[in-house]
Write a structure and sequence with these properties.
- The protein has 523 residues and is α+β, with helices and mostly antiparallel strands.
- Helix content is 35%, strand content 22%.
- The chain has 10 helices and 19 strands.
- The strands form 4 sheets. It has a 5-stranded mixed β-sheet. Strands 3, 4, 7, 8 and 9 form a 5-stranded antiparallel β-sheet that branches.
- Helix 2 (50-61) packs across helix 5 and helix 4 (78-103) packs antiparallel against helix 5.
- Bound molecules: the ligand Nc1nc2c(c(=O)[nH]1)N[C@H]1C(S)=C(S)[C@@H](COP(=O)(O)O)O[C@H]1N2 and molybdenum atom (MO).
C-alpha cells in the first residue's frame, strides 16, 4: 500500500536536496569570501569592508521614507538591521549563484564577480576612498568564486540518480568542504572584529581625551603668514591633508592608560613617564614644518602644523646624559627607530614630545598618543611616532631603521622651495599670472625667494610673514605672462645667505636637491 506513494515522495526529496546543496555551496562560498574580506579590511584597509560600504551605499540610495520607517521600527538598532539585510542579501545572491553554477557554469561565478564589482563600486564611491580600499572586496570576490567552483564540483553526483552507490562518501565530502568553508568564513569575520575592536577602543580613548591648554600663551601666527592665494598650500596644513609616511602596515593602537616613555642608556637617572604625568607637565605650543627625506623636488611630503608638547631637552636634563653620549635612539611601539644627534635634542630649539596636532590629540596615524617633532631634521632621523623609548647612546654603537638601510646618519633638512601655482601644464591667457609657493629651511629660516621665467633674470618674490625659522614660508610673484610656452623656476636663499643649489640630486641618501620648475602654456 505504501509502495505507490514512494516514487513521488523520493522525487520531492531529491528535488529538495537538488536545491538544498547548491544553495549551501553558494552560501558557504559567500561566507568564506566575506570572512576573508572582513579580515583583510580589519588588517589592511579599515575603510574597505564591502559589507559596510554596500550598507552605506544602500543608506545613500534608499528613499527617505524607508529610512524613517526603519529608524521608527528599530531605533538605534537601524545600523544592525541594515548590516543584517546586506548580509542576507549577499546570501540570497550566493544561493542563486550556487544553483546557477551547479546547472549552468560559469554563470554562478559570473554572478559572484558582478556582486564583487558592485562592492568595489560601493567602496570606491565612499568619500575619501583610496584605490587600495578595494582590496577586501576584490579578495572576497576571488575567494568566493574559487570556493563556489570547488564546492559545486563536489556536489554529490548521486543527486541525479539517488539509487546509484557511493552517495555517502560524496555527501560527506561535500558536507565537509562546505562546512569548512562556512566555518573558516565565520572565524575570519570574528578575527576581523577582534582586530578592529582594538582600533575602536583606541579611537574612543582618543575621543574622550581633551588636550590640556598650553602652559604659556603661544606666539600667535601672524595674519600675514598666509597669502590666501587660490591653489597655494595653506600655511598650516590641515591634519586630514597632512602627508603620512611610516612603515606601519597597521597603525599601532596604544592605550594611553598603559603607555609609558622610558629614557634609558647612557644616563645618570633612567626616567619613566606615564601619559598622565606627561600631560601634567607644562606643555607648550610651537609650529614646525615636518619634511620627509623622500620628498622629491616639487613633492608634497611636507606639512606644517602647530604641535602641543613637552620639550625633550627638559626630560633629558632630568635623565642627565653621561659624557660620551652623542645620540638618542628613539623607538616606536612597533619597533621602528630613529637616531637623533643629542645636541639637537638639548639645544634651545623646540624639539618636543608632542601630544597635540593643530588643536586636537594626535591622529592615530600621526603617532597617537605621543610622537617626536624636531625642527630642522628630516622625519627619518627625528619624528618618531608612537614613541615609547629614548635610548641615550652613541652613533658609533647603534644605527636606526633607515640609517642602516643606506640613508645618511645625520639628516638636516635641505633648503628648498616649491611652486604651487600655476600647476604644471596650466594654460592661461597672456597677461597677469600669480606665481606662488612655499620655501623652507627649518631652523635656519628663509631670507628671500626668486623666480625665473625661461632663461630670464631672477625676480624677487614677495614673502609672507614668517611664523618662525622652523616653518616654511609662503611667497608670491606677479608675472606679466607673454604668449608662448614657458618654464617657471624658483630658488630660495636661507637666513644664513645660502642660495638653493640647482644641482640635481636624488632623494637617497640625504634628500633631493635641484630647482622646482613648472612648464606652462600662455595664450
Ligand atoms: N614609528 C614610526 N615613526 C615614524 C616613521 C615610521 O616609519 N615609524 N616614519 C618617519 C618618517 S620617514 C617621516 S617623514 C615622518 C612622517 O610623519 P607623518 O606621517 O606624521 O607626516 O614620521 C617619521 N616617524
Ligand atoms: Mo620620511
Amino acid at each position: 500500500m505504501a509502495t505507490p506513494d514512494a516514487p513521488p515522495r523520493s522525487r520531492t526529496a531529491s528535488r529538495g536536496s537538488r536545491l538544498w546543496r547548491p544553495v549551501a555551496a553558494g552560501v558557504a562560498a559567500a561566507l568564506g569570501g566575506l570572512g576573508a574580506a572582513e579580515l583583510v579590511a580589519a588588517i589592511l584597509a579599515p575603510a574597505g569592508s564591502p559589507i559596510l560600504a554596500v550598507g552605506a551605499l544602500v543608506i545613500d540610495l534608499v528613499p527617505g521614507w524607508v529610512k524613517e520607517l526603519v529608524i521608527g521600527l528599530f531605533g538605534t538598532g537601524d545600523k544592525a538591521v541594515l548590516i543584517v539585510c546586506v548580509v542576507l542579501g549577499a546570501f540570497v545572491l550566493a544561493a542563486v549563484a550556487g544553483v546557477l553554477e551547479s546547472r549552468r557554469p560559469p554563470f554562478g561565478r559570473a554572478l559572484v564577480v558582478a556582486a564583487g564589482a558592485l562592492a568595489v563600486v560601493a567602496v570606491l564611491t565612499r568619500s575619501g576612498a583610496a584605490t587600495f580600499d578595494a582590496l577586501p572586496s576584490v579578495t572576497s570576490m576571488v575567494v568566493a568564486a574559487v570556493l563556489l567552483t570547488v564546492l559545486t564540483t563536489r556536489l554529490p553526483r548521486t543527486i541525479a540518480d539517488p539509487n546509484s552507490g557511493s552517495s555517502g562518501v560524496d555527501r560527506r565530502r561535500f558536507l565537509a568542504s562546505t562546512g569548512t568553508s562556512a566555518g573558516l568564513g565565520v572565524l575570519a569575520v570574528i578575527g576581523g572584529q577582534l582586530v578592529s575592536a582594538g582600533t575602536r577602543a583606541t579611537d574612543a580613548a582618543r575621543a574622550r581625551f581633551t588636550l590640556p591648554a598650553p602652559a604659556t600663551a603661544p606666539a600667535p601666527i601672524p595674519p600675514g603668514a598666509d597669502l590666501a592665494i587660490d591653489g597655494l598650500s595653506p600655511v598650516i596644513t590641515p591634519n586630514l591633508g597632512f602627508y603620512r609616511i611610516d612603515t606601519a602596515l597597521q597603525v599601532p593602537r596604544i592605550d594611553p592608560a598603559t603607555w609609558t616613555l622610558k629614557v634609558t642608556g647612557l644616563v645618570e637617572n633612567e626616567v619613566e613617564l606615564t601619559f598622565a604625568e606627561l600631560l601634567a607637565l607644562p606643555l607648550e605650543e610651537s609650529t614646525t614644518t615636518l619634511t620627509c627625506v623622500s620628498n622629491p623636488v616639487g613633492g608634497d611630503l611636507i606639512g606644517n602644523a602647530t604641535w602641543l608638547g613637552y620639550p625633550i631637552r627638559l626630560l633629558l636634563a632630568r635623565a642627565k646624559p653621561r659624557p660620551g653620549a652623542d645620540m638618542v635612539l628613539s623607538r616606536s611601539e612597533d619597533g621602528w627607530t630613529a637616531s637623533t644627534p643629542l645636541e639637537v635634542l638639548t639645544d634651545d630649539r623646540n624639539a618636543i614630545l608632542a601630544v597635540g596636532m593643530n588643536g586636537v590629540p594626535l591622529p592615530l596615524e600621526h603617532g597617537y598618543p605621543v610622537r617626536m617633532v624636531v625642527p630642522g631634521l628630516y622625519g627619518y632621523v627625528s619624528a618618531t611616532k608612537w614613541v615609547v623609548e629614548l635610548n641615550v647612546t652613541r652613533f658609533d654603537r647603534e644605527s636606526a631603521y633607515w640609517t642602516s638601510r643606506g640613508w645618511t646618519e645625520r639628516g638636516p633638512v635641505k633648503l628648498s622651495s616649491r611652486i604651487d601655482v600655476p600647476r604644471a601644464g596650466t594654460r592661461a591667457p597672456a597677461g597677469p599670472v600669480t606665481v606662488a609657493g612655499v620655501a623652507w629651511s627649518q631652523h635656519v629660516g628663509i631670507r628671500s625667494v626668486q623666480v625665473q621665467v625661461d632663461d630670464g633674470p631672477w625676480n624677487d618674490a614677495t614673502l609672507a610673514d614668517a611664523i618662525s625659522a622652523d616653518t616654511w614660508r609662503q611667497w608670491s610673484w606677479q608675472w606679466t605672462a607673454p604668449a608662448g610656452r614657458h618654464t617657471i623656476r624658483v630658488r630660495a636663499t636661507d637666513a644664513a645667505g645660502l642660495v638653493q643649489t640647482s644641482v640635481v640630486r636624488d632623494v637617497i641618501p640625504d634628500g633631493a636637491t635641484g630647482l622646482h620648475q613648472v612648464p606652462v602654456t600662455i595664450g
